[in-house]
Amino acid sequence: MEEQKHLPLPHNPTKMAAFGHTFPFYAGPKPTFPMDTTLAVIITIFLTALVTFIIILPGIRGKMRLFWLLRVVTSLFIGAVILAVNFSSEWSVGLVSTNTSYKASSSQWISADVGLQIGLRGVNITLTGTPVQQLHETINYNEEFTWQLGENYAEEYARALEKGLPDPVLYLAEKFTPNSPCGLHGQYRLAGHYTSAILWVAFLCWLLANVMLSMPVLVYGGHMLLATGIFQLLGLLFFSMATSLTPPCPLRLGTATLPTHRGPAFWITLTTGLLCVLLGLAMGVAHRMHPHRLKVFFNHSVGENPGLEWNPEEGGLLSPSYQSTAESPEPQDIPLSEASSKACCEEEHPSVPDHAL
Fold it and tell me: How confident is residue 1, by pLDDT bands cut at 50, 70 and 90?
């Protein structure tokens, strides 16, 4: 009996789309995580640190507990924002609902929401059908194109062409290629590199501020907190100036034009930068006017060690109370017993023996 050969089953693209897989011309699974994994890791780390501090909160006595919690929450918020916006793709965003062509080789149109998110390291393009199921397919794309160090945007765009991504995604990605007449690649790449570097400097200042505020050098910690806010504002200023070097390039998608504006990452960085500046200035004023209250707020109380005193000239250092010779009290004479004093006098002035001459 002749052996039966098993032929491969015919490919059914409709069935693939029904089970949430990708269409045959688009290789690779779609991302299912609801947010960027890098941002998720950053948020998880800072939330874990916050929960850890809250667990040990009952061990702090009195009103110091409230002051300590306020300091920890504010510091962790500032650090998390600086890191998160550095990796965020929402510095400039845009969203439009339009009717547009789906594939270059087809005359069929779809109704979809097209989104554009521009970050410091690249662009993220989304295409979501309204409804999602159209043309017997699941229209739900989320594509990222990066220009950070070590990445080649032109090569990523070439791979997108090989995949056969939908026409709206390729159209927006082509606007950010180095050879595009719009010039978006040059200005956003330049803005992203330098703004990211400035934000890393701000993060370093935040680390130094935490170290100094945990030590009795409060005024210098306030200075570093002020520097943290200033560098964040400088990063925003450079991003705004660099992205305004060329006139805006119209992004036409079917029957509509995609507008762009400042995204959440830009505004939350502005808010955090102003907060750091205000806190730094407030600490400087408090150091000049009410240094003891500033010490109490940071749990550096004078009463805990009577041998230490506040010295505002040294930035709030708890230094030993050394006194000069002029200010030191005069030494007091300690009376000695008669016997000891007599013996001492005899040693200094030995008596001469009475010899007859």
Answer: very low
